[in-house]
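Progress against Task 2.4 (sequence-to-structure conversion) is shown through the following example record, which the project officer requested during the mid-term review.
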Amino acid sequence: MRADHLKLGANAESTAARYLVQQGLKLRACNYRSRWGEIDLVMNDGDTVVFVEVRYRSRNDFGSAAETIDYYKQRRITRTAQCYSQEHGLHDEVSMRFDAVLIENYAQHMAHNNAKIRWLKDAFDACLD
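Structure tokens generated for the chain above:
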């Protein structure tokens, strides 16, 4: 049986995917994994491939959802995006973007089906060091 926090995470990712599709993006992949880490959602926004990190927080006692996407997390996402690009034959001329979908106080809002969602386009640049 999955732990409650894993269920909440999966539900948050589904909520984020539905929200982005409603905004006109097209879903390419969910939970793409490489040796570097995982990307929650890979989507298309027109001709741009968008790598999306979904962060949710039940409470803000230990910082906001945005604060948890630190340099090291950005670097893992960037490396994983490079693996995805190579594996799927994306060329250098393909435009890529790193977005974040933040869901605050998720546990309370989920019970009422009114999650508070914030979409940060271009949340960070690729970390290529």
